[in-house]
Structure formats: structure tokens, C-alpha cells
Amino acid sequence: MSKIAEVKAKVEAGKAKLIAGLVQEALDEGNAAGDILEAMIESMGVVGDKFSTGDLFVPEMLMAAKAMSKGVEVLKPLLTGESTSSLGTCVIGTVEGDLHDIGKNLVAMMIESAGFKVVDLGVDVSAEKFINAVKDNENVTLVACSGLLTSTMPAMKGTVQALKASGLKGFKVIVGGAPLTEAFAAEVGADGFAPDAGSAAVKAKELVS
Ligand code: B1M
């Protein structure tokens, strides 16, 4: 089995303690950081499918998520460059009712390396908390909202609408996460949508430039 296949298998199996070492070995073998990340994202897809079919349950999903996070820690310095520009502050969080943070963390990482200062509010973030963060931080140019559950799409809508109705100015809102679409983003009044972390960074730059 190739090292990258081993990383994939161990993320699926939720072997968090082994992942950092395996990811390093995969890098030492000459695999690109982006390919290893892609393999781990595929693992999460497999885990999600097995959850859907009842072949594994929430604790196993959680272990797989922990394993992936350990792998991302090793890759982070390789995936992000030194940012040279200053595009202001990006406030990011996963919307209220939603505890998924791996995708949000990847987006935060890419947005930071694109030249933003990132203020990460974490998960289960209410509209009020997003608004307070815009008020409390200097030069907020972007608010980034992540959501992975169809059941929290109304919270996404409520958050975007509350931000827009707050009277606060000077920032754009970008949304993303597996169940969202460009059409949904436009419908709820967001300024931008991105399907993945890489394109979120590109879109973020475009929105504030
Ligand atoms: Co949950 N979960 N989960 N889960 N989970 C999903 C999302 C699910 C698709 C699994 C499935 O059924 N196949 C399903 C949602 C179905 C739906 O609503 N359509 C689901 C469910 C049902 C649930 C619970 C309700 C299960 C239960 O309790 N019965 C529960 C909800 C808890 C809650 O949030 N209130 C739950 C819980 C959990 C865990 C806590 C156990 C764990 C999360 C741990 C953590 O995040 N720290 C978990 C996990 C791990 C998953 C899966 C398996 C993996 C998610 C992940 O990290 N993917 C997931 C299945 C799947 O994704 N196929 C699943 C990897 C990550 C890199 O991708 O997050 O999509 P993703 O991010 C991408 C893009 O979406 C995008 O860029 C990222 C990187 O390129 N993106 C943005 C994300 N945010 C963005 C923001 C942007 C732009 C792009 O701009 C701002």
C-alpha cells in the first residue's frame, strides 16, 4: 500500500495518533501536500457515505475528523505561504447549530495565506456573535460563513440577512459548505460563494479588491 493510501485508510479508521507520522512519511516519499489533503478529504467522503448507509456512527465520524485535523496540522505550513498583502480582517465561523469545522478551518487557512488577518469564531456561531465580531475588530473587510448541514441553511440565511440589516458597512459576506450553491448564496443576499477552500481564497480577494 502506498503511503498516501495508508493515510487515507487510517483517516477513515479514525487512527488520530498515527496520522501526523504517516502524513510526514507520505511527504518524505515525495507526495505533494495538496495530494495528501485531497486524499484525506476523500476519506471524509467515504466516512460520510458509510454514515449515511448506517455502516458507522457519530463516534466514528468524530474520530475520523480528529484524525484529519492532525494531518492538516502537519500540512498547514506547506499549504500556506507567507502573506504579503494586507486585505483587512476576515471574521469566519460555522453558523449556529452546526458543529462541523474541518472545512471552515481549511477555508480560514487559505484566506489567511491570501493576505487577511483571520478572526475565527469557531462553530455554532449565532448571527449576533458574527455582528459583534464585526463591531469589535478593526478593519473587517470580509465575513465568511460556513455550514455543512441542510438543517442549518436557514441559520445561514438568517446570519447573512442580519449582517446586511445591521447597518454596519465596509465588509462583504462570503458563504460556503457542501449543501450550499451559488444560487442559494445569491438568494440569501451573500456577496459571494465558493465551493472549496482554494476558490474561497480567490473569491475573498476578488470581493475586497
Ligand atoms: Co456530520 N454530517 N453530522 N459530523 N459529517 C455530514 C456533513 C453529512 C453529509 C454525513 C452524511 O450523512 N453523509 C451529514 C449532513 C447531511 C445534510 O445535512 N445534508 C452529517 C450529519 C447528518 C451530522 C449529524 C446530524 C449526525 C447526527 O448527530 N445524527 C451531526 C450534526 C452535529 C451538528 O453539527 N449539530 C454530525 C456530526 C458530525 C461530527 C461532529 C461527528 C463530525 C464533525 C467534526 C468536526 O468537524 N470537527 C462530522 C463529520 C466528520 C462529517 C463528515 C463525515 C465529514 C465532514 C468533513 O469534515 N469533510 C460529513 C460527510 C461529508 O462531508 N461527506 C458529515 C471534509 C471537509 C474538508 O469538507 O466540510 O465539506 P467540507 O468543506 C469543504 C467545502 O464544503 C468547502 O470547502 C471545504 C474544503 O474544500 N467549504 C467552504 C466549507 N465551508 C466553506 C466556507 C466557504 C467556502 C467553502 O466560504 C465561507
UniProtKB/TrEMBL annotation:
Identify the Gene3D superfamilies for this entry.
Cobalamin-binding domain, Methionine synthase domain
Q: Show where the B12-binding domain sits.
A: 87-209
Q: Write out the entry's keywords from A to Z.
A: Cobalt, Metal-binding
Pfam families with a match to the protein in the record: B12-binding, B12-binding_2
Please provide the Gene Ontology terms (biological process) for this protein. Answer: homocysteine metabolic process; tetrahydrofolate metabolic process
Kindly give the SUPFAM superfamilies that the UniProt entry links to this protein.
Answer: Cobalamin (vitamin B12)-binding domain, Methionine synthase domain
- Annotated Gene Ontology cellular component terms: cytosol
Keyword Coiled coil part of the UniProt annotation: no
Q: Which GO terms describe its molecular function?
A: cobalamin binding; metal ion binding; methionine synthase activity
Classification via CDD domains: corrinoid_protein_B12-BD (cd02070)
Q: List the InterPro entries hit by this protein, alphabetically.
A: Cbl-bd_cap, Cobalamin-bd, Cobalamin-bd_sf, Met_Synthase/Corrinoid, Meth_synthase_dom
- PROSITE patterns with a match to the protein in the record: B12_BINDING, B12_BINDING_NTER
Q: Which family is annotated?
A: Belongs to the methylamine corrinoid protein family.
- Name it: Cobalamin-binding protein
